[in-house]
Design brief:
The complex is a heterodimer of chains A (about 350) and B (about 150). Chain A has about 350 residues and is an all-alpha fold. In chain A, about 70% of the residues lie in helices and about 0% in strands. Chain A folds into two domains: about 5-165, no CATH class; about 175-335, no CATH class. Chain A has helices at about 5-10, 15-25, 35-50, 60-70, 75-85, 85-110, 110-125, 150-165, 175-180, 185-190, 200-220, 225-235, 240-250, 255-260, 270-295, 300-310, 315-320, 330-339; strands at about 130, 135. Chain A has a two-stranded antiparallel ribbon. In chain A, β1 (about 130) and β2 (about 135) form a beta hairpin. Chain B has about 150 residues and is mainly α. Helices cover about 50% and strands about 0% of the residues of chain B. Chain B is built from seven helices and no strands. Chain B has helices spanning about 5-10, 10-30, 40-50, 55-65, 70-80, 100-110, 125-130. In chain B, α4 crosses α5 (about 70-80). Chain B starts with a helix and ends in an 18-residue tail after the last helix. Classes of the chains: A mainly alpha (about 350), B mainly alpha (about 150). The interface between A and B is large, with 129 and 100 residues.
Chain lengths: ~350, ~150
């Protein structure tokens, strides 16, 4: 841990003492030494303010104060006491969170027997049965108070449920989406007696390769935030209101990024996200067309052929991608999922 | 005409939307087959989902999410949860044998995993994270139909 961090943390000692005292007051049935509380806060600051920051950047005293002010100190205090193995703390944890753990687990896992197994596994993990250098490795050691203890538990439980079930994640064959979309206009181009039907296989391959390369290039121009929201929408199937919710989170970095690119400073609704998506589609579309025209030297009518080929046979288009050699086939996906 | 109808009505946008959809799904599958060195822990994932990370803190995480289907899926699952379900108070189980009591009893009777059995399940274990994941049940009836 950096000496600058520790030095700056000293300037926050009053804040830390006060936070610790409030926690102690909230939990009179057990106690946690101040030194352990302070060290945990220091570790959290090192993890987030140094670990995720640019190299050689140290948090200022003001940044540290703000960081500490945002920590869920009561949750951290409880977690640290549980990590020490304080039985009273465990009972308090159980009182506060057991019903939530059970409810969330049963929401994720259908059978009662499986749910019980997940719940037991979570408690084992939280308690920790592995000992390294004489220290029991409780999962609570990874909780920093940066988010709520309950939210952290949700993630722990979800992992445990995934570990238990290992259900296939990607079961939908690529071909499926072409059956569900409103693609009549595109299909009209490709299904009729057009020049497309007379294309030789060599030409089709050329157009397919150009299409995928141009699309990848167009997608590469997006920044990670844009790509992430597209992935949430298209791959994970999040609804617009769910995306709106993460963009709406007051402190969400996605919200701040979103607002910088939007003229609106007011509340984000589904329609806002829809309009944003529309802009991204047009941005990709413009870039996609530009790539096909400039880099691949295609004429407008050839670009239309590219789009028509992709629309009539998207899975095949993906398979020929030079960067998609490891893409699993439908059969491979099913086998993988079944194993 | 709402936005969804506008999108449907614009063949140019509709076509590129379908191309993007297919391409992103294919790339996600490809990435799923790749080994990822290290994943963010639940503490970071939760801080991100709850909106506590500063932009500087979330930069590397967002880069990770766009290339790691496991973590992308995990965050999507957590986002998808309706927060309202969290506050429903379940019937008191004070008299029941809860998991903590079960845990202590099993510990006392020696049926818990021993320390040699490596009972700590670190998320960084690639073998665990590469496994396919169980999807949360979802009400498809309310799904936006513009995709």
């Amino acid at each position: 841990m950096g000496t600058d961090l520790l030095k700056n943390l000293e300037s926050c000692s009053d804040q830390l003492i006060e936070s610790h005292a409030q926690c102690a007051q909230s939990y009179p049935n057990f106690s946690l030494p101040f030194a352990e509380f302070r060290d945990a806060v220091a570790a959290a600051a090192a993890k987030y303010l140094i670990g995720f920051a640019e190299p050689n950047v140290q948090p200022s005293p003001d940044e540290l104060k703000r960081f500490i002010g945002e920590l869920k100190v009561a949750d951290l205090y409880l977690g640290l006491a549980c990590m020490r193995g304080d039985e009273q703390a465990w009972w308090e944890f159980d009182r506060q969170h057991r019903s939530f753990i059970e409810r969330w687990t049963r929401h994720l896992v259908r059978s009662d027997a499986d749910a019980d197994e997940v719940i037991d596994a979570v408690y084992v993990e939280l308690f920790g049965t592995k000992i390294v250098d004489g220290v029991r490795q409780s999962k609570f050691r990874t909780y920093t108070g940066r988010g709520s203890l309950r939210g952290w538990l949700r993630a722990i439980i979800l992992h445990a449920a995934v570990d238990l079930h290992r259900a296939p994640k990607f079961e939908i064959p690529m071909e499926d989406w072409s059956e569900s979309g409103d693609e009549s206009s595109i299909r009209h181009i490709s299904s009729g007696e057009t020049e497309d039907s007379m294309l030789t296989s060599v030409e089709r391959e050329r157009y397919r390769t150009a299409t995928v390369a141009a699309l990848d290039q167009a997608l590469a121009t997006l920044d990670d935030h844009e790509t992430l929201l597209l992935l949430y929408y298209h791959v994970e199937g999040l609804k617009l209101r769910e995306i709106a919710r993460i963009v709406e989170e007051p402190k969400s970095p996605i919200r701040r990024w979103f607002q910088r690119r939007s003229s609106r400073r007011s509340r984000v609704h589904e329609s806002t996200v829809m309009r944003w998506l529309d802009k991204v589609y047009r941005k990709v579309s413009d870039r996609f067309h530009a790539e096909l025209a400039s880099k691949h030297g295609l004429k407008p009518e050839e670009i239309e052929i590219c789009k028509a080929i992709a629309a009539e046979d998207p899975a095949q288009t993906i398979k020929i991608s030079p960067v998609a050699e490891s893409v699993l086939t439908k059969e491979e996906i099913q086998i993988k999922g079944a194993s | 005409m709402n936005s969804a109808e506008k999108q449907k009505g614009d063949p140019q946008v509709a076509a590129i939307r379908r191309l993007i959809d297919a391409r992103l799904k294919a790339r996600t599958r490809r990435n799923a087959a790749r080994a990822v060195a290290a994943h963010p822990d639940e503490d970071v994932i939760n801080a991100f989902v709850e909106g506590w990370l500063e932009e500087s803190e979330s930069k590397s995480l967002i880069s990770h999410l766009v290339s790691c289907p496991s973590c992308l899926h995990l965050t999507a699952q957590l986002i998808r949860l309706d927060p309202a379900t969290e506050d429903v108070v379940s019937p008191s189980a004070a008299a029941d044998q809860g998991p903590l009591q079960r845990f202590f009893e099993r510990l006392a009777t020696g049926v818990m995993p021993s320390i040699q059995e490596d009972a700590v399940f670190a998320y960084q274990d690639q073998g665990e994270t590469e496994s396919a994941e169980k999807s949360e049940p979802e009400d498809e009836s309310s799904k936006d139909d513009s995709k």
